[in-house]
Amino acid sequence: MNSWEAIGAKLQKMWEGMDWTYAVQFIAFALLFYLVFKVLKQNKGGKFIALLCGAVVVLGVACSFSDNISSQTLLILIFILTMIVVTMFNVEIKRDMLDSGARRSVSRSNMTVGHIEKIIQSIIRAIQDMSKTNTGALIVLSNENLPEGIISSGTVVNADITAAMIEAVFYPKAPLHDGAMIIEGDKIHAAGCFLPIIQNDNLPQELGSRHRAALGVTSVASVTAIVVSEETGIISICKNGEVRKRYAGDIDLKNALSQYYWSDLTAEE
After folding, report:
1. Of 36, 53, 154, 214, which residue is 20 to 30 A from 247 by alpha carbon distance?
2. What is residue 65's DSSP assignment?
3. How far apart are CA 182 and CA 133, in angstroms?
C-alpha cells in the first residue's frame, strides 16, 4: 500500500468512526485557525502565517500516518500555537477587539474635498503656532473607536475645526488644556480627555506625560495622536503604540491628516 492509499484508508477509517465529537473538534480547529490567521494578517505577521500553515500541514500528515497521534492532540497543539500568538500580539488583539465593538458612524461622505483640505490646513496651522510658542498639546484623530470612558473623562465640545479654536483649547490658562482633544471627522468632539498612560521604563526621558498618553491611547485603539511638547515645541506623530515620526514637519503632518481623512475614516465603509 503506497502513501496515498494509506492516507485514504486513514481518512476512510476516521469517517466511518466519526461522531459529533469530531465535528466539534473540527469547528474548534477552524475557528482557532481563522482567529490566529486574522490577527497575524492584520499585523503583517507573514512569517508567523507561514509557520502556522506549515505546522498544520506537518501535524496533519503526522496524524494521517501515525495511529498514536489523535485529532485531540492536533487540537491541543493548535491551541498552544494560538496562545503563543495571543501572548506576542496581545496589544494588537486588544486594539482590534475595541475597534470591533466601537461605533464607526463618522464619515467624510458629507465633506467636500475643499472642506477637508481647509480642515487639514487649520489643524496644521494650529499645531505649528503652538510649536513655535512651546504650547503643549495632544490631539487624537478618532473615527469613534475610542473607549467611551475616554470621552466621558473630558468635555464634549462638538465644535467646528478651526485653528483659533484648537489654540484656544490648549491655551495654558484654559481649563481643558491639560487633557487631550478628540477630533472626529470635521468636528472637535471633546477636549480635556484623560488617556491611558503607557508603562514603559525604556522610553527616552524627553518623552513626557503627553507622549506617554499618546502611546497609551494608540496602543488600545486604531487612532493617530499628534503631540506638541511643552518643553521643546517638538511635534511628534504616534500610531500603533509607537512614535512614528519625531520632529514632524509640514509634510509629515499633511500625510498623517490625509491618511486620516481619506483612508482611516472610511476603512470600515
Report:
1. 154
2. H
3. 22
Query: Which residues, at least 6 apart from 16, have a Cβ–Cβ distance to it below 8 Å?
Result: none
Locus of grid cell 465640545: 157
Nearest to 235 by CA among 218, 215, 252, 257: 252
Tell me the pLDDT of the chain averaged across its residues: 78
- What nine digits make up the cell of 163? 485653528
Return the pLDDT at 203: 74
> What is the length of the chain?
269
* Residue 217 to residues 196, 225, 242, 268, Cα–Cα distance (Å): 6, 8, 10, 20
Q: What is the DSSP annotation of 42-109?
A: HTT-HHHHHHHHHHHHHHHHHHHH-TTS-HHHHHHHHHHHHHHHHHHTHHHHHHHHHHHTS-----ST
Per-residue pLDDT reduced to its tens digit, 224-245: 999 999 999 999 999 988 899 9
